[in-house]
Amino acid sequence: MISIIIPTKNRAEALEKISLPSLVNQTYKEFEVIIWDASDNEGVLRVIENFPELNIKYFKAPRIGTSSQRNDAINKASGEIYYFIDDDTELSNDALEAILEEFSSSNDEVVGCSPPLISSNVYEGPFLKRISSFIWKPFTLIFCLPYQSHYRIVKRSGAPCWPAKDTPGLVQWLQGCSMAFKKEAFKIRSFDERLQNLGPYAKAEDVVFSYGLFKQGKKLLITRKGWAKHHFAPGGRPQSETLHASALFSIYFIWRSLIWPENPCSVVCFFLFLFGFFLQSLLLSIFRRNLWRLKGFFIGLKAIRSSELARRTTMDQTMKNRE
């Protein structure tokens, strides 16, 4: 059985119009839907009443945060496969069937997969696209992607998506809006809640988790059929200086914990990325006539400095204890 886990907060409309309707006509029927609700109203409960045909288990989230909500939800899951989607993720009718077939036909090293992802997020113009490309190139170098599979985004709607990839195959991480894992993956690691230090809905918990599995020798892949579409519905992560800071800190966290120990030379790529992130923050602050991105950059930089100082203090204490 597949346990579909949907963390949500104050987005009953997205559940009602996007994610839950796409589950009604799935060709594979052996699944449960776990809704982990951090809302401050009863909207989600009212929506659930409109889908009696789905096996929905509703829980009120005792803790708020992307990582903590997902970690708590798996304790209530009954399936052997955990499929995490967002409340604004739409699935093709054969998406669950595709996931099950991929796991059934793959070896034990494959612990995660996702249908090809369709993104409705569109870049605003060629200039901003070039800026984003400048930032992601050194970031890609940090991860040394051998499969050229940084993202698997399918251009089905005709909207310009970057980068456009629709070839099934191995990847190094999966995106939080659509990622399925075998139950055994959570015996290896869990979603890292330290990423929530700069806010409960910080970014990159999906990358830290799935890329961490990859670094431990496990395989992740994109299925050969089906699709998942992320709609970026209103009311998601609020665009703020805290979120911008968390994006910067998350990338630092990934690099420091997963990349640097094996490849110290990657510090060059990280500083290139840091410069690119600053440049993007500066230019967007100028063109959009608000400073929250630039403020967020310096908040993130301060958090990185604090983390490095804490790490150094811990190392010094360890050395003293050994002496």
From TrEMBL:
Keywords: Membrane, Transferase, Transmembrane, Transmembrane helix. The keyword Metal-binding does not apply. Gene3D superfamilies: Spore Coat Polysaccharide Biosynthesis Protein SpsA, Chain A. SUPFAM superfamilies: Nucleotide-diphospho-sugar transferases (SSF53448). This is Glycosyltransferase family 2 protein. The chain crosses the membrane at residues 270-287. Residues 3-151 form the Glycosyltransferase 2-like domain. The keyword Transmembrane applies. One of its GO terms (molecular function) is transferase activity. It comes from candidate division CPR3 bacterium. Pfam families: Glycos_transf_2.
